[in-house]
Amino acid sequence: MDENKKDTGRYVVCVLVLLGIFAIFGVQLINWQIVHGSEYREKADSTNQYSVAISPLRGEILDVNGVDLAINITGYQVVFDSLYMTGENSRETNQIRNDTILKLTGLFQRRGEEWIDILPITLDANGNFAFQTGEDSERDISALKDYFRMQSYATAQECMDVITGDNHYKCADLSNKDKLTVASVRYNMEINGFNAKTKYVFADNVSQEMVAIVEENHQKLPGVFSETVPVRKYVNGDVAPHLLGTVGNITAEQYKALKDNNDTYYNLNSKIGSGGVEGTFEEQLRGSPGQKIVETTPSGAILNVKEVENAQPGETIYLTLDARLQRVAAKALEEAVQGAEAASTNRNEDVKYSGAVVALRVKDFAVLCAQSYPTYDLTRYTEDPAYKLEILKDNARKPMTGRALNGIYPIGSSIKPAVAAAGLQEGKITGASTVNCIKKYVYSSNSDDYALCLGYHGPLALNTAMAVSCNYYFFQTGRDLGIESLNHYLERFGLGEKTGVEIPEAQGRRTSPETSEKFNQPWYGGNILNASIGQGDDAFTPIQLATYAATVANNGVRLRTHIVDKRTDYSRETVIDQYDSNHPQVMANAEVSQENLNLVKESMRGVVTNPRGTAHHYFGDYPIAIAAKTGTAQLGTVAQNIPDHTTFIAFGPYEDPEIAVAVIIEHGGKTQFPANVAKAVFDAYLRGIGMEDIPKTNPDGTTASSAPADSSSPSSAGNGASSQEQ
Questions:
Q1: The whole model's pTM is what?
Q2: Which of 615, 690, 684 has its CA nearest to residue 649?
Q3: What is the mean pLDDT of residues 511-534?
Q4: What whole-number distance in Å separates Cα of residue 258 and Cα of residue 532?
C-alpha cells in the first residue's frame, strides 16, 4: 500500500512538472504572439532593398564600309560584392574583408597576376614602410594624407599606423607585408564608393586560368566573384588612333563633374570615353543601364534578386573614314616625313619632323582620311603597359598629338588661291591684269621697308603668278585689299575657323591687329605682306586646309566637315541617324562669283600644267586632271637654319571634283614630300592604286559589316563583327 502511494506521488510530481513546463511555454507563446506579436512581426517583415545597376554593352565604332575599329570582346574581372561580405557588426565585417583580401591576393601572387593597387606606399629593403617615388607619387601621397586627414609632413609609417588602426581597417596585428596588402585594397575600395549598390573591381583583364582558380576557391572567398565583361578592343589599332580616342577608368574629377551635372549613370568603377569619337559620343556609345532589386534581411542575408529593367546597349557608329585609304595615307605620310628628315642638312636636335594629311569628299565634305605622323598603335597602347608608357613619355616626337585636327601651322603660298579670290571679287585684280615683279617689294618710302619675292618674274597675270607662286604679285594684291578685307574672305573659306567636324579641333588664327595684340606685338601696316603669302601670324590646321581646298572645288560653298556617317542600334540593323550627303549642311559661302572662282580654279590648274608651275613636276603627266597649290612657310631667321614647313593642297578630277587633299610636312623643306603624299591619296581613291594589298576584311577574317555580339549577353561580346603652335 505504501508502495502504491509512492508511485502515485511520483506520477503527480511528473504531471505537475510537465504542466509547469507547458505553462512556461504557453506564457512565452502568449508573450511572443499576443503581447509582443506586432513588434516581432514587424521585425520579421523588415528587409532591406537595394537597387543595383546592370552595365550595358558599349556601342561599337566602324569605318564607312563596316570594318571594325572599336568593338567589344569578352573579358574577365574579379569583383567584390558588399552584400556577401558583411558581418553582424563592423569588427566582424572588417575581419571577413581582411581575411578574404589576403587569401585572394595570395592566389593572384602565385599566378603572377596583378590586381588594382593605387596606394602610394611600399616596403623598403628593410621591410619598413616608405612612400613611392615617381611622376605622380607626390599627388597621390597628398591625396592619401588628405583623405585620412593627416598632416602634410606625416611619414609613411605614421600613415600606415592610422590606416591599419581600429578607426579604419583594423589590421594592425598583421605583418608589414600583409598590412600593406590589406590597406592597398581597402583604400581603393573605399575611395571607389564600395557599398551594397556598388561593386568593387579588384582586378581587371584577368586570365581565364585565374578565373578558374577563383571559382575553385569560391567557398573560401565570401563576396568574391568572377564576371565576364565586355572589353574594348581596337582591332585595327593603326587606323586613325588620334580620331578614335580611348576608353578608360573614370577619374575622380570626371565623376564629380558628372555628378554635379546630375548624371547618375556613372560610379567610381565606371569606364568612360576620352578624346576623339569615344569621348564626343560617350552618351550615345555608353547605352542605358538596367536595374535589379536585391532584397536582404537586416543582418545582410540575401532573400531575393529580381531584374526589373534590361540594360540597353549603346549605339554603333559608322565613320566616314575608309580604313584602307587611311592606311595608304599613313604609309605615304610616314615615308614622306622620314624622307624629309633624311634629306635635310639640318642636324638640330630641337627640330622634329612630323606631318599630317586630310582628304575630304567634295560632295559633302566627309572626312575620307585624316592621318598624323608620328603616330601610335591604339591596340598596343591599350593592351601593352610598357608600350603605353613609352608612348606617353615620348615628349620629343609627341606621337599622341593629333596634328590633322589640332596642329596649327603657317601654310605659306597655299593661301594664294584665297587671296586671288578676294582680289578678284573686290576688283583689285582681273584675270588679265598684270603686276611687274622686280623681286624687291618696297612697302613705304623707306627703302629698308621691303619684302622679297623668290625671283624676278617681270610682268605677269594671275595664271602665271599662281603657277610660279610669285610673292610680289600677291604682296600687291594683299596690300590693295587690306587686312580686314583679306581676312573676311579667309574666314569665308574656313581658314582660322572651326570646320564643324564632330570631334575636338583647334581654331587656328589669322594675322590681324587683334592677333598682334594678343601676342604683345606691335601692328605694322606692312604685316599685310606676310599675311598675303601665308606667313606672319597666320596658322591653320590641316583639316582647315582640306576644307578650304574643298570649298574652292565646291564653287565657294563651304559645307560642314563631318566624320560620322551614321548611327545605328547595336545590332546595326536600325538606323538612328544618318548624314544626308545629298543635303549637306552649309557653313558659309565664299561670296565670290562663279566667274571669279573659275579664274581661281584655272590658275590652280596652271600650277600643274604650266611647265614653270610648282606642281608640274609631280602632276604634270598625271592621267587625271588635278588642280593644286604648293606652299612653303619659312621659320625663324636664316642664321637659325630651321627647315621650312611645306604644304600642298589639291582637288580632282578638275572638271568634276570628287576629293580634296591637304598635306603639311613640318620642316619638309621640299615640295616633293607633301606632293608625294597627295599623289598616293589620289592614286588610291581615284585609281585604286596602292589598295591591292590592303585586306577588305577585319584582322580576324570576319567580313566587314557583319552583326555584332548578342547585346543581351556580355559573355558573347567577343562574337561581334569581327596643337602645337608654330
A1: 0.82
A2: 615
A3: 93
A4: 46
